Amino acid sequence: MSKNDIYNIKKVHLVNLVVLTILELTLSLLALKGCNTRLGLLCFATNAIFTAISIGLYFSPIKDEIKALFFTSIPIVVSVFFILTDSITVICSHYMIFLSIAMIALYFNKNLIKFYQVIINILFLTLISVKGLSLLDSSTKNVNIWSFIQIIVCINFVLILLYFLTKWGNQLIESAEEKEKISTELADKLNNSMKEIQKNSDILNTNLIMFNKNISSSKEAISNVNNAISDISDGINDQSEDLKSINEKMNNSSENIKKSQIVSDKVSTQSAEMNEQIEQGHERIDDMNKQMEIIYQSVSNSNATITELQCSIEEINKFLDVITAISAQTNMLALNAAIEAARAGEHGKGFAVVADEVRKLAENSSDTVNDINKIITSIKDKTSLVVEKSHIGEEAVKSGIELISKVKSTFDIIKKAASANSEYLSQNAEMNSRTTTEFMMILEKINKIADISQNQAAAIEEISATMETTTEDITSINNSVDELKNLSESLNKMSK
């Protein structure tokens, strides 16, 4: 911002124009009244010309400094004109010079004052050289050069004082300009700050409204959470009681399962022992079957041997019959030989002896054959009985083999059933063992769940207490937000 923006020089031009117009009009009237008609008209015409010049200067586009010099020079020119024409008194012209000094001082420009001081000194020196001391006062004889010097000195001192006044005033104006500039910058910054404050206050108000809504929603949500936590706490307490009851029943069931496991183990052990005994019985039946086969083979072989023996006895009987026949024939031959020996007499005695011995031998052979025949007959009878018994034994052995085969089949079925039963019992024992293990794991997990439920119940109680504290804090925050909203609205009003 320039000094002309602060100090309105156009307004000074207007004031000086008005002063000059009034002055020239007054001087014209005074000249018409106090002077002769010709001189009065000349003064009037001169003042009219200067008035027109003043008005033209005011509306001319020349620089303000040049325009100021022209405005302040007009009273001096008019004064010189009146002095030269003796239209007004010297003192009146001096006042007009001081009027021009006052007019130049209105511009508050030290350069104009310096330039004006040079012009006024040159003008006075020129006038004093042309007009002489009568310039001061033609009616007074006491006027001398010292009077002129006094006037010049006074005028110069006045101009010097006006110069310093203008200089210091300009310094004040420049300082005021700097301060105004700083104040303007501060005002702009303050205005921008106030706009930012207003903008931020609006944003803050909007955010506070949203925050207030969110706080209200959070408060309502926390209330719902508190209700839900209360319901959960009741549910957990009920669950804890149910878990305690389940735990007690599971403990009882665990004891029963352990007992069942012991019984199952015993049954499995006994089943294994029974399987071993069945296996041993099966092996024994196999051995018995083998022995019966051997016995059957032996009986069959014995039966065959006895049959062969019967055949041999029959053959022996045949041989004995032959021997008996031979003995009979031998006996007949011996008898015939004895008869012939008897017939031979002495010559036949030896032959008779032999015949007698042969007869005896034949009789002995016949007796032996008879004895053998009796024995063979007895053996044959016994052999027939043995054969009969052997057939009965063979049939019995066959029946025994069939019975043992049936018993073996039955034992096979029993063995398979016992083996399947043992396998089922083993699987059952294993399942019982797994069930017991899983049951114990379930029991352990139930105990853990019960502990967790108790911990959850305690944690939920703490959460409930914390939620109550949070609700109180949110209420306090809500109150603080309301206060902050009121402060923001007040700040917003202040920024406007």
From TrEMBL:
List each copy of the Methyl-accepting transducer domain by range.
Answer: 214-471
Q: Which residues form a coiled coil?
A: 236-291
Family annotation (InterPro entries): MCPsignal_dom
Where does the source fall among the domains of life?
Bacteria
GO cellular component annotations, sorted alphabetically?
membrane
Q: Keywords in UniProt for this one?
A: Coiled coil, Membrane, Transducer, Transmembrane, Transmembrane helix
Asked if Transferase is a keyword of the record, the answer is no
Q: Which Pfam families match?
A: MCPsignal (PF00015)
Query: What protein name is recorded for this chain?
Result: Methyl-accepting chemotaxis protein
